[in-house]
Amino acid sequence: MVVRAVGGPCLVTDAGRVGLAGVGVGRSGAADRSSYGLANRLLGNDAGAAALEVVLGGLEVEATGTCWVSVTGAPVEVDRDGRREPTGAVLALRPGQRLRLGTPGSGLRSYLAVRGGFRVAPVLGSASRDTLSALGPAPLAAGDRLAVGPAPGGTMLVDAVPPASYDAVPVLRVVPGPRADWVRDADALVRSAWRVAPESDRVGVRLAGPAFEAAGRGELPSEGALRGAIQIPPDGRPVVFGPDHPVTGGYPVIGVVVDADTDRLAQARPGDEVRFRWA
């Protein structure tokens, strides 16, 4: 498969690097794990097969051999050689045929999987691109060639699944963090409306809204960090750690988004409103 065009960032991703936080390497992996996993299941792929994570569409690829593909996540207009196809369908690409992803009407990240997975040399056990540490393959560019792995043992059981749909204002479950008492009013997290800031990325989702006031406890030593942790930096504006988060952090964690809800947060665009509730 040859990349003919890209729009937003397009990264190779998989299930991530497990068990390396002790040596300073985060897990990384797909930002929306449920959509990534669905794309692979539709094709009968092994769990953890490498796929592509596409931000706001714009990707165009050309098949150099016959292959089966699926697109999940943020619903985009899928064009197969001039024919419109639905997100969530299992599609055959013949040699020379092109697949184009339009801009999603909602959501942020779409996933393109191929039967057999993309064959990419792993780095520390994973083909994922970690944008913080720059581990893994570089972001895709026009002209890149992608090898496809051998057919897996799994079968393709369905032709299509319904496209994803997203609530206009997601309400994410959050549990109190270990340093909730390091701000004067941690409950402001669930009372306030927040918007995704333009500076957000795979490292963390920055939230625009009322600033938290520190409780005056001084400096906090660095502690272990995890996906979904809500840190409060000195400016008082929350940051929710994403898949490429650092393995330690030195700012107070006042809450942690329930792990299952971090996939929904990964689909929030800059400017989208999000809210929280205590789990």
Q: What topology does this entry show?
A:
Layout: E1 2-5, E2 10-13, H1 33-42, E3 51-55, E4 60-62, E5 67-73, E6 78-80, E7 83-85, E8 90-93, E9 98-101, E10 109-114, E11 118-119, E12 147-148, E13 171-176, H2 188-191, E14 194-196, E15 204-208, E16 223-224, E17 229-231, E18 239-241, E19 248-249, E20 253-257, H3 262-265, E21 273-278
Parallel strand pairs: 13-21
Antiparallel strand pairs: 1-4, 2-3, 3-10, 4-9, 5-8, 5-10, 6-7, 6-9, 11-12, 13-20, 14-15, 14-21, 15-18, 16-19, 17-18, 17-20
Question: What does the average pLDDT come to?
Answer: 97
Radius of gyration of CA atoms, rounded to a whole number:
20 Å
Judged by helices, strands and strand pairing, the structural class is mainly beta
The helical percent reads under 10%
Describe the global form: elongated
Summarize the biggest pleated sheet.
7 strands, mixed, barrel
Give the strand line-up of the largest sheet. Answer: 13-20-17-18-15-14-21
Descriptive report:
The chain is built from three helices and 21 strands. With 279 residues, it is mostly beta strands. It has two domains: 2-148, no CATH class; 171-278, Beta Barrel (Cyclophilin).
What's a concise summary of this model?
The protein has 279 residues and is mainly beta.
